[in-house]
Amino acid sequence: YIGMDHFAKPDDELTLAQRSKTLRRNFQGYSTKAGSDLYGLGMSSISHFGSCYAQNAKTLPEYYHAISNKQLATHVGYKMTQDDGLRKHVIMALMCNLSLDKREVERQFEIDFDEYFSNSLSRLALLAEDGLLTVTPDTLVVTGEGRLFLRNIAMCFDAYLSKKENEQPMYSKTV
Fold first, then answer.
1. CB 63 within 8 A of CB 78
2. CATH numbers and ranges of domains, the chain
């Protein structure tokens, strides 16, 4: 059982990556390729390179128009902020390793974890009460039951979910 929604044989490279804590997640799911650039081809595809993301045109007419005019089909681009990178690291650790060492994050990003993520930790407290994860002074550890709600746990660290009520959601909804 890999992450939240993948399965692999005991000797599969995904299983080995999970054991060695080198498992990663991208738009296609779990991967062993950390830091690989991903170039999306086709309508609505998403590319990721370095700290940048780009999405191609979302409709077939827009996509074909750009391609037939020898233009890039890129519809929108985004460069991650330092906060985005920090949150990505935290979410990736939880979704791939099912645990997070708060002190390691503090050293790597030069923050006080509990202070920086005080709002996130408040939201996590309810999930911890339900037995979905264990929160200690040094770690966050997803429980067996929590694995089924891994996306909900990770959402506590997503800054874009706290957008104004009247804006369109910018994320995948959970069931």
1. no
2. 13-79 (no CATH), 82-162 (1.10.10.920)
Residue 141, burial from CB neighbour count under 10 angstroms (0-12, 13-18, 19+) = middle
Q: Which residues contact 20 (CB under 8 A, 6 or more apart)?
A: none
CA angle 165-169-174, nearest 5°? 110
* Nearest CA-CA partner of 88 in 74, 67, 109: 109
Give the single-character DSSP code of 148: G
What three-state secondary structure class fits 31? strand
pLDDT in tens, 62-81: 999 999 999 999 999 999 99
AA identity, residue 109: F
